[in-house]
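Example record

One chain of 98 residues, shown exactly as stored in the release files.
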Amino acid sequence: MTENSPDKTPEILDAEIVEESPTAPVEVPEPDYSESGVPSFDHVRDRIEQRYTTSLGSTELAGLGGKEDVASLDKKIADRDKAAKDKLAEIRRAMREQ
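Predicted C-alpha cells for this chain:
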C-alpha cells in the first residue's frame, strides 16, 4: 500500500510546540583586540611572523634565497641540458651501429 491510499491511517506524532523567544544579539569583541580597539601583542606578533614567512616563501620560489643563487641554478640547468644532448647523441650512434 502507498501512503496516499485511503486504507492507511496517518501516524500520529506526539510533539511539543515551542515558541521562539527573541534573543538579544550578543556582541562578542574580536579576540585579537581589546574593547578600546587596541591589538593584542599576540595578534601583532602573529601578523609579523605571517609576513616574514610569506616573504621567505616568495624569495625561495623566485630562486633568490637559500644556498644557491640564480647563476648557479642556471649553470646546473645548462649542465643538465648538455648531459641530455650527449646521452641522446650516444643513443643515436648506438642505433646506427646496429
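Notes: Helices lie at 41-62, 70-97.
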